[in-house]
Structures are given as structure tokens and as C-alpha cells.
């Protein structure tokens, strides 16, 4: 899960981080600010293994008496499938859509999203149905005596329960989820008590990780537009672990996941994932909440913007402007600043945006498509019959900004460096799995079975031969042939989303000579361990950049601005506008004033400020789900901010004088899922 650059307090789903992009920054794992590590995307969450110490039985604070006595709930409460289904039928999606998203969201039915194998609008899903919920509660057997609660005087229907549903303080969205559960469960049975409890973020996170929270909100912002990136964390990965999913259920999911990810044919994958959806629904493992839909603004004078929701922010080279204060500079008034410009380490959308314009990858997205790829630094590629060997022919006569020439060796070095740098605060787990196998999500797994995960100090203490061997393995999997102009990558198994994985910023190519000269890894298997689990503050490549992209970094002044300038020796179509300025403006009022003055082409607008900006909308481009694209913009003649959703905008024939284009309605790529803890500790 990538970090969004949102500062916490904009509670609600915040707006469109990226102006017109759909990425509506739903609550991913909340306050990135308070949690520098964010939700590490640890696939298997190996770190969390705490020794099971003998402790005196302590009461779980979130389960009242911890008993089925009307004043609490037992630790195994959600182990009962009918309890999970009862809760699932008690949720109210429409209230979330209307109150949190002001009408601009759609219910999520399955974990996967539109445009990926596994997405199935006809799959079974839960809807609010309090009668069905009551039926399920009556079928539950919480005291496990074989008598369903509806006929059992000392089971949950007669006794009731009391538990706490926690949220991290300040996160209004999660608070409302809990309030919905509270109100609806009390309606079903007045003895059903949910207490809504706000906890400071560190306490909330710690309680989740310790498996203490009975029911929680699990947010995810996708890394790549692929079902595996959704199904894995919510079952066998991070959240499945937090839910204490029973081993047999986890094994069923894992079998489906392994089968699905190894298939390259989307139709074949879809069939496997249909089985996944069915199992997830039948077992009521969790309930996906909603997908916020796009509501992003740009000045009408901007042309050529490619609104691909899986981009990190914007891709600027295609854009031109025909108005505004300065025709030579595209200005984005933004809220989030770069963390690091090292492509192997960056794992947040603000850093990713700069990297995406300055560095390049072997393949890139085809226009607005999230699942189609075009050549970028690779001219072409082939795969072996069994799908494990990928040979990329590397583009010739490509210059780095600093003057170096791109060679296949640079490509191989960049991937090797990333994998060896590893670490769970980085995106490298996404590359490690295809190369090393499912579950082998960090280089430390090859060295000492993850004993040194995220600890350079521990890693370097390993015997030299082990360290060298791990590095040699990496080098054997990614081999450059400069004479032939190719790079050959050998995967541990076929990997359906491989192109999607290398199209992102962590697949960027650096110039080996420049990297070495600036204090990076020298390419030797004797030294790599000294760079393992790099953090942005220590990384020599955090503040500098040298890519092959259409823009080069002019300067980054942390907290103020990042300025990119056109690279005149770019191998491809040159950037259409000379400069890009991404300005960090934390105050909405200031961003808004810049937009009004024509000094900003895009601004970040939180949901609650939309009415203020909507009145300046002169045209609207509406998303068409059939085509999975926006239709051409049409004029808007009046805006009634008392109405919600699309009703707010009256479309007409005549041009409007208002200055903004609104992109409306494409579902975002992040969602919350309410998940139950099968065995509270
Ligand atoms: Ca019973
Ligand atoms: Ca009983
Ligand atoms: Ca080079």
C-alpha cells in the first residue's frame, strides 16, 4: 500500500489529491504523518511474530467482560460465521456515500477494482438488510453448545453483547463507520451494544498489530492495478494476519492466490479470482466499503493531460496551456512533499510523481489505461513459453540528464540495486516476489530467512559467503548483454502482473556510473549489505535525480517547491511545456486564491471545500464506466451546491465563462474494508 501524501486531518476522504485524477485519497492507513513507516506493505508481516509468552489471562479492553454475559463478548466472537454475516448485513453503505462522500462514491462489491481480472459486478455482496442480519444472529452459536442463538436462552440473541469499535482519533470516516454499526445493531436487538472509541493513532495501530481489536477498518491504496495487490493483503498478507484468519481458511486463499498470480491470461485469472470472491463473501471475511469517485479540477486552458488513475500524481510532458499567468510553466498547488527521489526507496505518491517525470521505466502505461503497456526504455520484449524468462531489448541512444548513455547494464544494475536495497519501508517487496517466489518478499529472506528483516546491523553480521550468495542469486536473475542490447530477467514463477509491477517508479532506470560516483552501491557482491534497508534521510539519492525522462530536476526545496525543466536531449517526444512547478501550499485558501488568480493550473481540494470551487466549473467531463474513460467535456451553465453528486451541475449547450474543467465520476483506486478479528488476543 502506497502512502498518500495527505496530511491526516483532512479526515474525510479528502478530495482529489491529484486534482482531476480519480485517486481520491480515501483513508488509506491514515495519518502518514504520525506514522513514518506507514503501513509497511509487508506481505507476510514477518516482523510481528511475538513470542507467545505465558501471561496471566488479561482481559481484552475492547470486549467488555470478555464473556457472553450481556456485558461483553468472548475472544472467539467473530470466529462464528453468523456473527460476521450479521454484522455485514448491518452496515449501511448509502449513509457512507451521502454523508462522508457527499454522494460521490459507489459501493465496493468485491476487493478487486474495475479493469482487473477478478472484478465482477455480478459477484455476491452484502447490502444493508437488518432482517437478514437478525436471522444470522439467531443462527449464531457463540457459546458453542450446538444450539443456535435463536433457541438458546444463554446465547447472543437473548444475552446480547457489548464490544468496542475503535477508530483513530480525528478520522471522522472511521468514526462514522463505527456509529453506523452501533445504531443498526442496536436497532436489530437492543441488547447489542457497540461502543465507539477513539484512540490516538499509535495506540490504535499497536492494538491492531497485537490482534486486540475485534473489528477494524483496513484501508488500502493500490500499488499496481492488479487483483493480486488487493487479494493478498486482505487474506494471506498484512490484514489477514491482523484478523487472525484460521490457517485452513488462509490456506484456501493462498492456493487461489498462487494459482491466480501465476497465470498470464487475464481470462484464466478471472476464473480463479471468481472463486476467491465467492469464498471471501461466503466466509464474510470482511466487507469492502466504497470507492470514492473522481471530482478533480483543472483550468480550462490546460490541454493534453492524461488522467490515468494509477499514475503517481500527474505526468506532465503531454500538457500544454493556453492561458494563465505564465504560459511556460505548469503550476500544481499541492499539499504533499517528496520523501525521497531514490526510485528504489520512494513509496509515496508525492515522491512518485517527481520520479515518474524525471526517471523512466522499461514500459509505461498506455494513455489512461491501467492495464495496457507501451515501450519506454525497452523497445520490445519477449517471454519464454512458460512465462518465466523475460528478455527486454533496450532502447539505444538514450541520454541521462547528466550526460551518461543508457546501456543494458544500467537497467540490470538498477533492478539489482533495488532488490538488494530491499527493506519493508520500500516498494521492493513488489519486485522481490516475482523474482524470488511468493512470500519471499525481501532480500533478507535469501540471506537468513528474514532474521535480519529491516535491520542492516543484523544483516551485515551474516557470514560473508551467505551475503555474497544472495547477491549472486540476484545477479543471476537479471542479466545484461550490452553487445546484444538486451536484459534478461528470470522469474521464480510466471507472474501475471509483471509488466504492471515494473511500470511503476520502483522500476526506474538509473545510470550506474553516476550512481556509483554519487555514493551508491558499486555493483559488487561484497558491499551490497551496506545499503540494505536504506531510509530516506540517509540515502544519497533522496535529494538528487538523474533520469532519462522528458523533464530533469531543476531543484527541490523541501517544504516549498519542486521545479522540473524540459530535458532538451530527450530521446522521444519532447515535453510540451518548458517547466513544471509543484508548489507545496498547505493552506487551502492560498491554493484557491492561486487558482482564481490564474497562478495555479491544478490545486488539491478537500471534499468539504468543493462547494466553494464548484461554482467556478465551466465544463464537466463525466466518466463513462462502459468505456472506462471520461467523455469529452460539456458546458455547465449553473451549479447548485445544495444538491449532491452530479445533480449539482446543470449541463447545457452554450459555453460558460467559468474557468474550470471538472473531471467527474471515475472510481478511485483505494478503499476501506471492515474486517473482523477471528481470534482476539
Ligand atoms: Ca448456543
Ligand atoms: Ca447455550
Ligand atoms: Ca550508464
| Proportion of strand residues | 15-25%
Write out the CATH superfamily name of the domain at 65-291 and 671-676: Dipeptide-binding Protein, Domain 3
Count helical runs.
20
Distance separating the two termini: 25 Å
Radius of gyration: 25 Å
Provide the CATH topology of the domain at 65-291 and 671-676. Dipeptide-binding Protein, domain 3
Structural class: alpha+beta
Largest sheet report: 7 strands, mixed
Helix proportion of residues, in percent? 25-40%
CATH top level of the domain at 65-291 and 671-676 is: Alpha Beta
Number of strands: 25
Which small molecules are bound?
calcium ion
Question: Which shape, going by the Cα principal axes?
Answer: globular
CATH architecture descriptor name of the domain at 65-291 and 671-676: Roll
Low-confidence spans: 5-50
Please tell me the overall pLDDT. Answer: 91
Please describe what this structure looks like.
- The protein is of the alpha+beta class.
- A hairpin with a 4-residue loop joins β20 and β21.
- The radius of gyration is 25 Å and the shape is globular.
- Among the domains are: 65-291 and 671-676, Dipeptide-binding Protein, domain 3 (Roll), CATH 3.10.105.10; 349-538, Alpha-Beta Complex (Dipeptide-binding Protein, domain 1), CATH 3.90.76.
- The protein contains 20 helices and 25 strands.
- Strands 1, 6, 20, 21, 22, 23 and 24 form a seven-stranded mixed β-sheet that branches. It has a five-stranded mixed β-sheet with strand order 16-17-18-9-19, sandwiched between helices.
- One calcium ion binds next to α18.
Amino acid at each position: 500500500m502506497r502512502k498518500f501524501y495527505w496530511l491526516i486531518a483532512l479526515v474525510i476522504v479528502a478530495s482529489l489529491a491529484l486534482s482531476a485524477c480519480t485517486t481520491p485519497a480515501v483513508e488509506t492507513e491514515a495519518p502518514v504523518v504520525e506514522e513514518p513507516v506507514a503501513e509497511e506493505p509487508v506481505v507476510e508481516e514477518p516482523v510481528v511474530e511475538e513470542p507467545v509468552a505465558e501471561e496471566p489471562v488479561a482481559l481484552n479492553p475492547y470486549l467488555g467482560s470478555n464473556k457472553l454475559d450481556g456485558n461483553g463478548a468472548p475472544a472467539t466472537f467473530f470466529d462464528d460465521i453468523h456473527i460476521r454475516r450479521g454484522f455485514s448485513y448491518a452496515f449501511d453503505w448509502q449513509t457512507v456515500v451521502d454523508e462522508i462522500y457527499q454522494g460521490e462514491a459507489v459501493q465496493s462489491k468485491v476487493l478487486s477494482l474495475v479493469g482487473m481480472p477478478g472484478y465482477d459486478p455480478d459477484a455476491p455482496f452484502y447490502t444493508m438488510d437488518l432482517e437478514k442480519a437478525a436471522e444470522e444472529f439467531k443462527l449464531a452459536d457463540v457459546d458453542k453448545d450446538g444450539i443456535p442463538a435463536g433457541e438458546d436462552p444463554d446465547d447472543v440473541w437473548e444475552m446480547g453483547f457489548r464490544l468496542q469499535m475503535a477508530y483513530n482519533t480525528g478520522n471522522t470516516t472511521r468514526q462514522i463507520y463505527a456509529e453506523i454499526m452501533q445504531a443498526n445493531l442496536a436497532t436489530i436487538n437492543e441488547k447489542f451494544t457497540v461502543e465507539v472509541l477513539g484512540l490516538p493513532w499509535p495506540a490504535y495501530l499497536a492494538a491492531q498489530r497485537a490482534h486486540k481489536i475485534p473489528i477494524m477498518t483496513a484501508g488500502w491504496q493500490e500499488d499496481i492495478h492488479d487483483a493480486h495487490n488487493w487479494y493478498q493483503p486482505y487474506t494471506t498478507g498484512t490484514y489477514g494476519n491482523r484478523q487472525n484468519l484460521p490457517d485452513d481458511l488462509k490456506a484456501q486463499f493462498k492456493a487461489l492466490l498462487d494459482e491466480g498470480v501465476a497465470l498470464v491470461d487475464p481470462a484464466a485469472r478471472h476464473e480463479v479470482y471468481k472463486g476467491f470472491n465467492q469464498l471471501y463473501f461466503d466466509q464474510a471475511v470482511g466487507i469492502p466499503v466504497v470507492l470514492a469517485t473522481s471530482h478533480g479540477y483543472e483550468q480550462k486552458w490546460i490541454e493534453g493531460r492524461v488522467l490515468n488513475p494509477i499514475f503517481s500524481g500527474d505526468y506532465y510532458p503531454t500538457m500544454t496551456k493556453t492561458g494563465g499567468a505564465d504560459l511556460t510553466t505548469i503550476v500544481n498547488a499541492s499539499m504533499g512533499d517528496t520523501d525521497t527521489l531514490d526510485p528504489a526507496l520512494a513509496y509515496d505518491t508525492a515522491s512518485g510523481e517527481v520520479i515518474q517525470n524525471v526517471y523512466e521505466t522499461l514500459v509505461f502505461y498506455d494513455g489512461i489505461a491501467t492495464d495496457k503497456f507501451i515501450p519506454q526504455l525497452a523497445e520490445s520484449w519477449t517471454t519464454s513459453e512458460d512465462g518465466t524468462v523475460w528478455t527486454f531489448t533496450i532502447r539505444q541512444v538514450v541520454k541521462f540528464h547528466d550526460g551518461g548513455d543508457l546501456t543494458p547494464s544500467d537497467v540490470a544494475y538498477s533492478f539489482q540495486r533495488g532488490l538488494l536495497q530491499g527493506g519493508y519501508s520500500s516498494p521492493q517487496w513488489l519486485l522481490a516476489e516475482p523474482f524470488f517466489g511468493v512470500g519471499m518478499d525481501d532480500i533478507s529472506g535469501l540471506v537468513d530467512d528474514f532474521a535480519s528483516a529491516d535491520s542492516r546491523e543484523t544483516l551485515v553480521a551474516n557470514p560473508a559467503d551467505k551475503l555474497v550468495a544472495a547477491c549472486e542469486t540476484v545477479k543471476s536473475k537479471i542479466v545484461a548483454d550490452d553487445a546484444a542490447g538486451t536484459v534478461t530477467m528470470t522469474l521464480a514463477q510466471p507472474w501475471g502482473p509483471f509488466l504492471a509491477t515494473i511500470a511503476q517508479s520502483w522500476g526506474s532506470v538509473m545510470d550506474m556510473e553516476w550512481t556509483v560516483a554519487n555514493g551508491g552501491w558499486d555493483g559488487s557482491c561484497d558491499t551490497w549489505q551496506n545499503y540494505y534497508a536504506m531510509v530516506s534521510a540517509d540515502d544519497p539519492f533522496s535529494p538528487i535525480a538523474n533520469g532519462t525522462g522528458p523533464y530533469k530536476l531543476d531543484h527541490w526545496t523541501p517544504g516549498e517547491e519542486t521545479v522540473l525543466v524540459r530535458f532538451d536531449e530527450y530521446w522521444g517526444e519532447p515535453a510540451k511545456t518548458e517547466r513544471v512547478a509543484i508548489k507545496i501550499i498547505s493552506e487551502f485558501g492560498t491554493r484557491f486564491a492561486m487558482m482564481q488568480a490564474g497562478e495555479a493550473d491544478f490545486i488539491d481540494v478537500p471534499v468539504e471545500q468543493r462547494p466553494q470551487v464548484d461554482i467556478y466549473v465551466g465544463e464537466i467531463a463525466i466518466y463513462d464506466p462502459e468505456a472506462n474513460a471520461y467523455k469529452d467535456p460539456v458546458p455547465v451553465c449553473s451549479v447548485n451546491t445544495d444538491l449532491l453528486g452530479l445533480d449539482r451541475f446543470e449541463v447545457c449547450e452554450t459555453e460558460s465563462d467559468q474557468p474550470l474543467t471538472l473531471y467527474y465520476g471515475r472510481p478511485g483506486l483505494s478503499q476501506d474494508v471492515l474486517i473482523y478479528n477471528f481470534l482476539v488476543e
